[in-house]
């Protein structure tokens, strides 16, 4: 059945268009996060995770609120969003480990105050298309316990990597709805690095100083592309018998302080990734990538408001969720995201109630290409067959989590 679904997905231009739009949204969100939430720190988040949570909210909206969400998500209708989510969950995000590929886990949760009952149509949708866990809870007198329950759920779904998704005090007696998504990814490199030759080198910080960190290296040919002002490296994960191919891409600016210009470029060109990713292996000269580990969390409502998604956070638009006149007074209180990623010689482990990206550096094409990620870069993890971006992030200092 999955195989049939897969061949269907490859020929569905509609789905590929949706993924391309979702990637454009992801990159514009990344640019915003880099400048506002993570101007001076490492970042990892899952644009896909946020996209799915917003799609669930859109499914319960109507009128101008719905229009605003559809416009932001670059989608034609809620039907379109829901079928996109259901195909993603069934195909792109199903666990690849049984076939020898990366381990993947993707889960949605919706917590609703017990004073409200969801409309059957919304319940059906959230269950069928989003495979979400639905819980009726008592926010009014047991807010702290509910927050703990959501946190336990996120921790379990991300194999213990995302802890305390909801910070203390973020849920109180006025909360009525919480939407959460958890994404976990663990992939082994197709060609692992030899840990015995990992060595400390200087990594240049944006402040102008440098720090010693462990760098992985290899003499094997690599997927590298040198472009104008930056280079891109692709490190594929073991694929197994699955058609899907997950790859981590590093975007390295040539200039030591070229990260913000590169992020700007990434976000401003529609379809940017399609033409920039390397597709052939080249001989490498000097090749070094730092090991790193990042944990990052943020509350998404302010970022979304600045990007024009305002109405879901005010009353009046979320009328397709609950079976009660109270629905007129509902609004989303918070959307929390938290992600974790670790990159080492074996591969990558990443998780989210959010997710992550990576960047690189370029020069004239010599016979061998150097790729030395010794200054701030961006990264992303992508499924190449469909183009779905799971995580995006930046590394400013490989020492800090």
UniProtKB/TrEMBL annotation:
Keywords: Protease inhibitor, Serine protease inhibitor
UniProt domain Serpin: residue ranges: 27-398
InterPro entries referenced in this protein's UniProt entry, alphabetically: Serpin_CS, Serpin_dom, Serpin_fam, Serpin_sf, Serpin_sf_1, Serpin_sf_2
Family to which the UniProt record says this protein belongs: Belongs to the serpin family.
Protein's UniProt keywords contain Isomerase: no
Gene3D superfamilies (alphabetical): Alpha-1-antitrypsin, domain 1 (2.30.39.10), Antithrombin, subunit I, domain 2 (3.30.497.10)
Annotated Gene Ontology cellular component terms: extracellular space
GO terms for MF: serine-type endopeptidase inhibitor activity
Source organism of this protein record: Psophocarpus tetragonolobus (Winged bean)
Name recorded for this polypeptide: Serpin domain-containing protein
Lineage: Eukaryota, Viridiplantae, Streptophyta, Embryophyta, Tracheophyta
Listed PANTHER family: GH10112P-RELATED, SERINE PROTEASE INHIBITOR, SERPIN
């Amino acid at each position: 059945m999955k195989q049939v679904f897969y061949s269907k997905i490859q020929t569905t231009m509609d789905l590929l268009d949706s993924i391309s739009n979702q990637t454009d949204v992801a990159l514009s969100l990344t640019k915003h996060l880099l400048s506002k939430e993570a101007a001076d720190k490492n970042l990892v988040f899952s644009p896909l995770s946020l996209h799915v949570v917003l799609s669930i909210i859109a499914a319960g909206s109507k009128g101008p609120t719905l229009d605003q969400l559809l416009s932001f998500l670059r989608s034609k209708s809620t039907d379109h969003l829901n079928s996109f989510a259901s195909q993603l969950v069934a195909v792109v995000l199903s666990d690849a480990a049984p076939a020898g590929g990366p381990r993947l886990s993707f889960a949605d949760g919706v917590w609703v105050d017990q004073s409200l009952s969801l409309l059957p149509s919304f319940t059906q949708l959230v269950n069928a298309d989003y495979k979400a866990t639905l819980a009726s809870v008592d926010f009014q007198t047991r807010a702290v316990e509910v927050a703990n329950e959501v946190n336990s759920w996120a921790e379990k779904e991300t194999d213990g990597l995302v802890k305390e998704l909801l910070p203390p005090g973020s849920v109180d007696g006025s909360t009525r709805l919480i939407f959460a998504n958890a994404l976990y990814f663990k992939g082994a490199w197709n060609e692992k690095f030899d840990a015995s030759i990992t060595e400390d080198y200087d990594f240049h910080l944006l402040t102008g100083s440098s720090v010693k960190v462990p760098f992985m290296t290899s003499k094997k040919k690599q997927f590298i592309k040198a472009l104008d002002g930056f280079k891109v490296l692709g490190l594929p994960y073991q694929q197994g018998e699955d058609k899907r191919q997950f790859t981590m891409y590093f975007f390295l600016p040539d200039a030591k302080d070229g990260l913000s210009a590169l992020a700007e470029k990434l976000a401003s060109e529609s379809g940017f990734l399609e033409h920039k990713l390397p597709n052939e292996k080249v001989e490498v000269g000097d090749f070094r990538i730092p090991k790193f580990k990042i944990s990052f969390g943020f509350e998404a409502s302010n970022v979304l408001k600045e990007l024009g998604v305002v109405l879901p956070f005010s009353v009046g638009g979320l009328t397709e969720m609950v079976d009660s006149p109270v629905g007129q007074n509902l609004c989303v209180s918070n959307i929390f995201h938290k992600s974790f990623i670790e990159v080492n010689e074996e591969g990558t482990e990443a998780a989210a109630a959010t997710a992550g990206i990576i960047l690189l550096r370029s020069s004239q094409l010599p016979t061998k290409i150097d790729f030395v990620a010794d200054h701030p870069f961006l990264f992303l993890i992508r499924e190449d067959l469909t183009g779905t971006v799971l995580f995006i992030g930046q590394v400013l200092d490989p020492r800090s989590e």
